[in-house]
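User: Before I run my own analysis I want an independent prediction to cross-check against. Here's the chain; please return only the structure tokens and, at the end, one sentence I can use as a sanity check.
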Amino acid sequence: MTYKKGDYLKHNDGECTMIRAVVEGGALVSRHWVNGDSNGYKAEQVTKVNRWVSSEQLDGYYTICTAEESGMKKRWRPEEGAKYFYGYVSSSLKLITDSCPWHNDYIDRGLLAVGNVHRTEEEALAFVNSKIKLL
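Assistant: Structure tokens:
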């Protein structure tokens, strides 16, 4: 089967994956869970990890599916110059939210990569609260 970057895949055991890169002999994929629970952790708490999957594994264990079928949520990404919110814990251990315009620079992309780019201040605060509960 022919795969391309951005394809959503579903494993026979229900695991969700998205192809990050395709090279000869296989692909680099990100792991996600469809059922919302993996080893006792909620899906939002599971760290997304990249891993190598061979072509044989792709063809033998995965099927291409839509984003909706995969259960993966696409992250919101602001338009250039649009305001977004993010949250963090200050050195005095206070929950802080802030906002800034999106410039698609390394700071913006870094916050997006960890899921800390939000439409509202409330979403940013909820994100920080959810991370504190993990500690």
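Sanity check: The CA atoms of residues 83 and 101 lie 4 Å apart.
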